Amino acid sequence: MTTTTTTTAETVLDASGVTMRFGGLTAVRSVDLTVNSGEIVGLIGPNGAGKTTFFNCLTGLYVPTEGRVSYKGTVLPPKPHLVTQAGVARTFQNIRLFSNMTVLENVLVGRHTRTKEGLWSALLRGPGFKRAEAESRERAMELLEFTGLAAKADHLARNLPYGEQRKLEIARALASDPGLLLLDEPTAGMNPQETRAAEDLIFAIRDQGIAVLVIEHDMRFIFNLCDRVACLVQGEKLVEGSPEVVQGDDRVVAAYLGTPFEGAPGAEEVAEVEAAEAEAAASTPADAVSEGRESTTRTTGPEKETP
Ligand SMILES: Nc1ncnc2c1ncn2[C@@H]1O[C@H](COP(=O)(O)OP(=O)(O)OP(=O)(O)O)[C@@H](O)[C@H]1O
């Protein structure tokens, strides 16, 4: 496995031995991944490889069966709001906006982890609350400027075109002032122009000092954007390295095409099943005829006539 490590940068995210099982299914198996300050790291892999499950383990939505996730040297608590408070924000594969709230209100919701005013202050609307509210609005408007949505601050979220809804999700995530932003398929459903704009936005986010971990299926986007890319296959990290290294790795191509290769995650199990099936197929016809029953393993060809 090829690994590129930046030793001088601060480690922002350190996921170590993360495993997530759902009953008998191991969706993520012993995955290690770091993200350093100033980096954009990509997470790729075929459908069902475990990418979103891994994100859910990082953000407290799932409690990993095994493993540990640290942010800037501190182990993250397995509760989404505490993870956000610690400095890790995320967007979702399926857009999760408050569709009947305005664009500005959506960003203000994302701001709540950074406001200190409590319930009584909010109910009494005292000077502390008003000051905090004004600051939140100012910050939210800054973020809308940054993401190019300021002109639509008063529009209902549901009336935004799809690409802008994705941007709004990012603005809302940024409202919690994260040090690490996790993006789950940020360009899904976007046209090429919107995808290019999303790329520029993510570069700008990185330039503001926020490390980024991004899941994407658009390979051109990911290889253009990322400093480092990790490829998951059947829950295991198969390859990690620079975009050039990952792009040129035959195992990654094979994994996407579904071609089996030596050492592939799950390949041993597949080989065992295939061997057992071959053995059964070789022995079953004679047995089946002598015992007067049909083979259940054979799927093609007519039954052979016995003289
Ligand atoms: N809550 C759950 N309960 C049971 N199985 C789950 C659950 N969440 C995910 N899985 C399974 O875990 C595996 C990994 O799914 P996951 O959604 O993480 O893959 P992915 O790489 O994000 O896929 P995609 O690219 O299609 O979004 C799949 O087999 C999926 O069916």
From TrEMBL:
In this chain, composition skew of type Basic and acidic residues spans 290-307
Task: Choose one Gene Ontology CC annotation of this protein and give it.
Answer: plasma membrane
Which molecular function term from Gene Ontology is one that the record holds?
ATP hydrolysis activity
ABC transporter domain residues are 13-259
**Spans of biased composition, class Low complexity?**
278-289
Q: Which Pfam families match?
A: ABC_tran, BCA_ABC_TP_C
Entry keywords, A to Z? ATP-binding, Nucleotide-binding, Transport
Question: Is Nucleotide-binding one of the keywords?
Answer: yes
Disordered: annotated segments: 269-307
One GO BP annotation of this record: D-alanine transmembrane transport
Q: PANTHER family recorded for this chain?
A: AMINO ACID ABC TRANSPORTER ATP-BINDING PROTEIN, CONSERVED COMPONENT OF ABC TRANSPORTER FOR NATURAL AMINO ACIDS-RELATED
- Which protein, by its recorded name, is this? ABC transporter ATP-binding protein
